[in-house]
Amino acid sequence: MLLPAARPLPAHDRPISGRPILVCFGDSITAGYGLREGQAYPDFLEKMLDAQGYEYKVVNQGTSGATTKDALATLPYVLRLHPAIVIVEFGGNDGLRGLPVAQTRNNLDRILTALQNAHAGILLAGITLPPDYGQDYIRSFDAIFHDLAAAHHVAVVPMLYVGLVNVPGTIQNDGIHPTAKGSAIIAGTLFRALKPLLRKGLPEGSAAKY
Q1: What CATH number did the domain enclosing 75 receive?
Q2: Which residue in 25, 125, 128, 169 has a CA-CA distance of 20 to 30 Å to 65?
Q3: Is residue 9 part of a domain?
Q4: Among residues 50, 82, 174, 206, which one is catalytic?
């Protein structure tokens, strides 16, 4: 199921409280496609951060249907926020459209480079594809996230849906997007991966994998 790319969400100014900003930058999974307001994973993530005493303002910069090319176009909106941390969740729509893996890899590489030049902490969130896309394409696609995380020394969750496998009620009827229950599980997966960045950042020269 392919969704039309929407216009980018407006960037929000840094709140008066001065809380550091954590941007969830992604596609329909981040945007909360098919969910009610407050049920996307960034909403659950902010509640988890608050409960653990991490005073971050979570900004949802998700756009349903967005590809990595769209992400490059909307990246200035994210950089304008001067984020402390960015979760990068793109690539699924590239894969579903059968776009060249090299193109997806290059776009994500440019995004990660720009964020690092802006001194933002990064968590790269990967996704895989249905088996009917063929083993060779899927294998090359999956490698994008591992390889870029290692090359840029950033934290990575290679498979965002890892906690949803065989858990009833976590995927909507379209077979693609998470339910509110699924979004809460995804938030937990990302929260655990974020902890080193929240405390003191990742050790130099390492790539964390969760």
Answers
A1: 3.40.50.1110
A2: 169
A3: no
A4: 174
Active site residue 28: yes
Is 206 part of any domain? no
Q: Is 149 inside any structural domain? A: yes
pTM attached to this predicted model: 0.88
* Neighbour order of strands in the sheet with 57-62: 57-62, 21-26, 85-89, 121-125, 155-157
The rounded distance, in Å, linking the Cα atoms of 169 and 84 is: 33
């709140």: which residue's tokens?
Answer: 15
Tally the domains of the chain.
1
pLDDT in tens, 42-72: 999 999 999 999 989 999 999 999 999 999 9
Residue 47 forms part of a structural domain:
yes
Give the active site residue among 28, 64, 70, 94.
28
Structural domain of residue 92, as residue ranges? Answer: 21-199
| Active site (annotated) includes residue 82 | no
- Tell me, yes or no, if 177 is annotated catalytic: yes
Q: Looking at 11-170, which runs of residues are DSSP E strands?
A: 21-26, 57-62, 85-89, 121-125, 155-157
Q: What is the pLDDT of residues 152-174, one digit of tens each?
A: 999 999 999 999 999 999 999 99
